[in-house]
Amino acid sequence: MGVFFRQNSKQSGQQGFTLVEVCIGLIIISMLAIPYMQMYQRYQLKTINEETANNMGAVKSALAKYATRYGRYPLPANPSLAAGSAADGVEVAVGTVGTCTVASINVCRATTPTWGVAGHKTVLIGTVPYATLGLPIKNSYDGYKSRFKYAITEFMTTTPYTFNNDDGIIMVVDKNGNDTDTLATPVWSQCAVENGTCSFT
Fold this sequence. Notes:
Elements: H1 19-70, E1 98-99, E2 108-111, E3 122-127, E4 149-153, E5 170-173, E6 179-183, E7 187-189, E8 199-200
Parallel strand pairs: 1-2
Antiparallel strand pairs: 2-3, 3-4, 4-7, 5-6, 7-8
């Protein structure tokens, strides 16, 4: 004859959370986490901006040293080359530069229509020639891991040239369309998107 035990359906000391209680708990945790998430996002943006500014500063310094040493600025590098390839970051030969179009992916030449001295109206656009400048590849990127864009008034890439930054014909325009400055060698970062500029030197 067997012995049977009857299990009590109410187990003492073991109670679960109701769905409402779980939801309330998740809401409270979310409300506490939001300020920390915002702090982390601000920290990330600060880190990105610092990296962009540091690398841009290194490029600007290298360009000035190059111009002082060789009496000219380097031509842009080809932006369509794979990172780390043999010719990546090396200034292009002027004879390989075509006219800029909307679809341009290589170094291209743009002409300023209304300003600049006759014969000095062309600008070359590409990426920073970091290898020609003697910089490591990391200095050619902004904090978003995008290549810096680089433009140069073309006649300032030829020798002999009397070094003078005021000779540049590249106009800097603000978001309202107003001319703010004329530069010889702008280097800029297009941030996380390709339709605007957030850092400029």
